Amino acid sequence: MVQIHLVPLLIRTMRRLIDISAERRALAHLSDEALADIGVSREDADAEARRAPWDIPESRRFDDDRSIGGGRFQADRVRATAL
What we know:
Layout lengths: L5 H23 L3 H6 L4 H9 L20 H12 L1
Helix pairs in contact: 1-3, 1-4
């Protein structure tokens, strides 16, 4: 049986996976000009977009909000750039 205190950890982990997937999809849809503005090549953007959702960068693996920028903020920023 899952311990009650593990449920919030599982929820945060799933949220982080969803956020990272959204960020990668948004990155894949940026124009070449937008990618150049943020210093990312099309090849790097495509490679990042192909990564599996559970392939989380080391900087985003924390169990609390110490991750760089926090997942939701990062995804919103990438989406805003894509517009």
